Request: fold
Amino acid sequence: MTTPARYDVLGIGNAIVDVIAPVEDAFLDAHRITHASMTLIDEERASRLYDVFPPASETSGGSAANTIAGCANLGAKTAYFGKIADDELGETFAHDLRAAGASFFTRPLKNGPKTARCLIAVTPDAQRSMSTYLGASSLFGPSDLDAEVIRDAAITYMEGYLFDQDDAKAAFVQAAEIAVSAGRQTALTLSDLFCVERHRDAFLHLVRGHIDILFANEDEILALYETASFDDALSQVRADCRFAAITRGAKGSVLLCKDEVVTVAAEPVEHVVDTTGAGDLYAAGVLYGLSRGLPLAECGRIGSVAAAEIISHYGARAQTPLRDLAELDAQG
Amino acid sequence: MTTPARYDVLGIGNAIVDVIAPVEDAFLDAHRITHASMTLIDEERASRLYDVFPPASETSGGSAANTIAGCANLGAKTAYFGKIADDELGETFAHDLRAAGASFFTRPLKNGPKTARCLIAVTPDAQRSMSTYLGASSLFGPSDLDAEVIRDAAITYMEGYLFDQDDAKAAFVQAAEIAVSAGRQTALTLSDLFCVERHRDAFLHLVRGHIDILFANEDEILALYETASFDDALSQVRADCRFAAITRGAKGSVLLCKDEVVTVAAEPVEHVVDTTGAGDLYAAGVLYGLSRGLPLAECGRIGSVAAAEIISHYGARAQTPLRDLAELDAQG
Reply:
């Protein structure tokens, strides 16, 4: 038996501020932005792209950070590791995470690159196409881990995007080892189709031996197992992971563990504005449910409610209390 | 006859980035924030208030800047003067204004206070309660005026908020003089009820001799003339100004000139989220209409359409092309 955990969920990821703007489809073509995915860009490209970017609004982002903010909003005890710079956007990022109720520990970077920003172009189909300048977040590494916090978290949740930087990848592996040694659970989100293509072997290795809880969308799980069959992918992930939750956009999601498979419908949304953070908030709801030992169907329902809130407006942080939307207080 | 103007509208105001968060009513009481108005705060109070502020999003703001961004969005040729600092939020402000299509000239401040920010708490009644730290914007003064641009603008539009700082007030008066000497029109928005209380005599002096076009809401115009009768206020403003547009929230607006009074209904809005910028965008629509020589009723209609867009989401900058919403292209 492990001791009770001080945190329900610890998140580790790239600490990013989103710069979000609605655009026409032609904008993506004109500026060579890949539709509906995440592309890493350098500082010069970020600067040139911002110069031609439409009027935007800034909200804190970062995949795992969005999930942690969502978990905290739902009422979970949460913490986060990720690298910001000692600048205004870094202050914004830290404020928004702490104000959501999460503990945020990582020391800001001084005299280095600026806080990461992600230029998000939202097309009329509500898809988000992301161009990410990692800046300070790329300097996250093993020395930023606080082993005591990891040992004190029931679930350590990490984003696949961390594998895009060697130091962050090393931190990921080390954090997973600490969590496993402490008898805690590890969780991974595959993050993005192209991220899976870049790191398939490493992700398969993790999924097959080191990760208890896996999050992915349909494209990502098909890419991971290099199959065109969703059923085939589900069989494989079920053999590999203790628990998995696979999202399928408007078709809802599938949650699986060794002896149960549950299909959950998506929550109806009147007007889908911006899908940024849909997967992150779905994961938040599921992780919250798991932390409370709720049935799979209920975990999926809370995830769907959180995702529905986030896609009904611009930005990946909740504008309405998620506990109320999910009617958690009514359940006691 | 004056020469044709290079700019339809030049705006002058406090260059501010908004930090917007939904709050419960109790938040205003707990932190002594005055409901539905603008309060100036110092840096220390801004820092303490931000510490307790909920997760927020940042969008460029500033009353006259919102109006100019709206005018530009509608298709007018616009320019703006206002003081930002040489920092990240300043860069954001400049980007958003230029990306909207406005020319923005003012030199950023170096080695001084940070770019102004306005902490906006939006209550469930959709009213915005603003706590403004003026920072760099308070150092705007006569030396920031470019007389050539003023002479080249058909209308110079200024916010009453400028009267809260002596240097900005001096710049206001000087800009008005330059515009009048060049045979151009001057416009003023009364900005805020408490702003009128602070500067009633100065505003009356302006309205009675130096301002061609006046914008105000019902509370502000009643406060200006110290009357409880809306009809009385309308008679007085009609005697004082060549043109006035008075907004009454959901009751619509009244537009007046010497030989015409027109009442315009508010555009229906399905769900009012955040009234930040409602007056600013109404002014944008009216100024656009005036710049095109449209009838008063049409000016008011475009203003109402722009205001309706802005109150349907958080933030005071348009998320949907206003020309399309106002069906301007269909009119040729």
User: Anything to note?
Assistant: Chain B touches chain A at residues 22, 50-51, 53-60, 69, 87-89, 92, 95-97, 99-100, 114, 313-315, 317-320 (CB under 8 Å). The first strand of chain B starts at residue 7 and ends at 12. The radius of gyration of chain B is 18 Å. Chain B has a mean pLDDT of 96.
